[in-house]
Amino acid sequence: MGEIITVDDPADPRLHDYTDLTDVELRRRREPAEGLFIAEGEKVVRRAGDAGYGMRSMLLSRKWVDVMRDVIDRSDAPVYVVEPALAEQVTGYHVHRGALASMQRRPLPEPADVLRTARRVVVMESVNDHTNIGAIFRSAAALGMDAVLLSPDCADPLYRRSVKVSMGAVFSVPYARLETWPKGLRTVQDLGFTVLALTPDGRAHTLDETAPHRMDRVALMLGAEGTGLSPRALSAADTWVRIPMSHGVDSLNVGAAAAVAFYAVTAGRPQE
After folding, report:
1. Residues paired with residue 58 on neighbouring β-strands, in sequence order
2. From the CB of residue 211, how many other CB atoms can be counted at a distance below 10 Å?
3. Number of H helices, E strands in the chain
4. What is the mean pLDDT of the chain?
5. Closest by alpha carbon to 159, among 82, 43, 44?
6. What gap in Å lies between CA 243 and CA 204, rounded to an integer?
């Protein structure tokens, strides 16, 4: 069982993992370099542990100690108990959910490793909004996608906002980062995947016409909010696909479009 320690100094160095959580650029640099990520909220902390991520420490307000008692009892990590006002001083925001944990990152697998047993894969290009990353992972998990591949410039799925929006689904779907773009898509195609580029372009085939659920192995490629897929990514795809729109709407945001497309890709797929 981890030691429960009351802390009353916001400058206590033991709270270093939790400092300046609202400074996005700082945390983007710090967290991968220091090998950590932050899980926020009871469900997310539990899911991170269940997924096998090691715990470095917990930061709890007093009332959450009993709620998280079973998690505390299973871990050797220290538990720092603080008043809500002190937690706000340390993190930079009001911690509504009352429970934070600093978790240990694991090395990312190679793309070929996550593709080996997959049949339905998400590929993201330049998706830098953490809310969109989290929403896409949550839909991918819920709708039966097998893995996620990220272009080199995609945002970190383990950033606190991404993890929170996904409700811990980032722990459920294997993911890897391609080292080169779009050249890295050749790895996907060489393993038998048909790369479908999701675009609102009128020249694209509708998802119904393409019938991706009947294809053996599919990699569905999504672009960033607003800009969509780059010309280089579109050129590297095997087929362009689109979601038909009505009432003069030209497109959906990438999170909503992803969920619709994932259903089209996985509908009728035998459960394994």
Report:
1. 79, 101
2. 14
3. 12, 12
4. 95
5. 44
6. 9
| Residue 148, both tokens | 């996620």
Which distant-in-sequence residues (6+ apart) come within 8 Å of 50 by Cβ? 171
Q: Which pTM was predicted?
A: 0.93
Query: At 156, is the pLDDT very low, low, confident or very high (cuts 50, 70, 90)?
Result: very high
The dihedral through the CA atoms of 203, 204, 207, 209 has a sign that is positive
- 47 φ/ψ angles, rounded to the nearest 5 degrees: -65, -35
3-state secondary structure (DSSP) of residue 69: helix
Order the strands of the 147-150 sheet from edge to edge.
175-177, 147-150, 120-124, 218-222, 194-198, 239-242, 205-206
pLDDT band at 17 (very low <50, low <70, confident <90, very high): very high
Angle in degrees, CA 257, 260, 265, rounded to 5: 120
Could you tell me which residues are beta bridge partners of residue 175? 148
Q: Report how far residue 191's alpha carbon sits from residue 160's, in angstroms, rounded to the nearest whole number.
A: 33
Helix, coil or strand: residue 120? strand
Neighbours of 228 (CB within 10 A): 20
Q: Which one-letter amino acid corresponds to residue 184?
A: G
Phi-psi bin for 179: left (phi > 0), alpha (psi -120 to 50), beta? alpha
**Burial class (CB within 10 angstroms; exposed 0-12, middle 13-18, buried 19+) of 258:** buried
